[in-house]
Amino acid sequence: MTEPSPRSPEDSGATTQDSGATAEVTRADAVVVGAGLAGLAAAAELAEAGRRVVVVDQEPEQTLGGQAWWSFGGLFLVGSPEQRRLRVRDSEELALQDWMGSAAFDRDEDHWPRKWAEAYVHFASGEKRAWLHSLGMRWFPLVQWAERGGYLAGGHGNSVPRFHVTWGTGPAVVEPFVRRCRAAEQSGRLSFLFRHRVTGLTRSGGTVDGVEGEVLAPSPSTERAEKTSRETAGDFRVQAPVVVVTSGGIGGNHELVRANWPADAGQPPAEMLSGVPDFVDGLMIGHTARAGARVINNDRMWNYPEGITNHSPVWSHHGIRILSGPSPLWLDAEGTRLPVPLFPGFDSLGALYHITRNGHGHSWFVLNRRIIEHEFALSGSEQNPDLTGKDWRAVLRRALPGATGPVEGFAKRCEDFVIARTVPELAAKMNALTADGAGKELVDADALARTLVDRDREVASKLGKDLQVIATSQARRFFTDRAVRVARPHRMLDPKAGPLIAVRLHVLTRKTLGGLETDLDGRVLTADGSPLDGVYAAGEAAGFGGGGVHGNRALEGTFLGGCMFSGRAAGRAAAKALGD
Ligand SMILES: Cc1cc2nc3c(=O)[nH]c(=O)nc-3n(C[C@H](O)[C@H](O)[C@H](O)COP(=O)(O)OP(=O)(O)OC[C@H]3O[C@@H](n4cnc5c(N)ncnc54)[C@H](O)[C@@H]3O)c2cc1C
């Protein structure tokens, strides 16, 4: 690789880069690979500590902020004023009990993940809200109850509601970090290099001294997160004593998802939807491993079983996750109810494993109009225009009868929804949707009718033994659930609550729970546990801290916070190390 005159970040901005046959070379104190939330958090810390930072991203400028922009903006906070106003009694001890029960750390590799978990729960119970509040973030007052668990006290799940939706959703989570980085850019301490794709870490004298890669041709695409071309227009290098890897997970790369599929989860389905854009390709994790980093827990992922096909896709295989209240019946591909406690919103991974272990790629929610109106929400900033647009009037309409506009839109336009007046008609439509080449009908109409009638008898008894019916009634003791999330228990076959609805659910790839192993400073570790000199990692690429802060299962709303917390830690530690 040839090296024309090296440039400093001050003169290496995205607009002035030269490209072509020769490699462009930039020098800085630190290079951050990935301009998602974790990268922005790390870069802001470095720049504000007076370091010269280059942030490199393979995507064009309009994708700045990565996945977080698309997120629902749900944050795991413990003991918040929002919880207290809703009379939710939470504590760090209870949150740690829930985290450890969900993580179920069970490997030698879990040394640093466990330490990160303790630190993260402490952060979420302490300074997290005040820090983010000082950066301008605010939260919707109705805290939500995600991942309810349904096991014993020491098992998986949130004992209390902790999912705080950021007012303005994903874009409002990203905004303060973009603002800080743009301010640093203005003052000349930070520059962005978009359409720069890192393909490796470079070394001199045995030490990592930067990154190298390809300058990608300008993409004709103008929409955020659309798939962009990989056509190259030249090479580049950034020379820096500090490299921070914040390149995200593997969820957009189904080949990698399949290759790392957990051994105890059966086979990955032949068809899966993507809950993340194509740029979440996971390749940078491999490049960092080739430089000596240790990747751990790569079979731990947080994919969802409740994906539906996006009728207006932005990225490849674009799927949307349904966030459902607890009332819909969850049936496997053959129409049998999932076992206790695999009710909607209780144990995502448990439900996913149950489905894929049985060899099926899909399952069903069966519900009725009244339930969809109360209980269906969709994950993603663009699916919640009222919250994303900070439109109070539109948000208040959620408490009125009727589904939200986007849910209505999916019910009408998404191929996975079927609607019927009677059970035989519903079963026929379900079977028509999934008929294989041999025309085999998977759902038996009589068995489906029995399932619904049995469940309705339990509701009518007002007491009953059906744990889903009991859990649904129990949920309504909490204000948010009663107000906007959980329908009053009623007979599924009540004609006044109809028509009946069935939704075919696909496996949706999303988060990567394992990744680059790091210590509490975000330093990337090698196979013998020693740090890979000058290399840091944060966000999803580092399993949100340590190489897998969530262990086996997550409590939800913990990913964005994990990016901000681990990005901040890596940025601060790297800035300090540069000063030594
Ligand atoms: C629809 C949706 C809803 C979500 N909702 C929530 C929620 O409510 N709560 C929550 O906690 N989490 C949520 N998440 C998860 C959360 O948004 C992500 O886990 C988090 O934003 C990941 O941030 P990151 O910075 O680690 O990675 P990313 O956002 O993936 O950013 C990585 C960046 O690195 C770049 N990159 C990758 N490889 C290279 C390379 N070789 N060279 C140069 N650049 C590279 C990519 O282009 C990308 O811009 C949601 C995610 C989605 C998609």
UniProtKB/TrEMBL annotation:
It comes from the Bacteria. The keyword DNA-binding does not apply. Residues 29-560 form the FAD-dependent oxidoreductase 2 FAD-binding domain. Residues 223-232 have a biased composition (Basic and acidic residues). The keyword Flavoprotein applies. Residues 1-23, 209-232 are annotated as: Disordered. One of its GO terms (molecular function) is steroid dehydrogenase activity, acting on the CH-CH group of donors. Pfam families: FAD_binding_2. Keywords: Flavoprotein, Oxidoreductase. NCBIfam families: PRK12834.1. This is FAD-binding dehydrogenase.
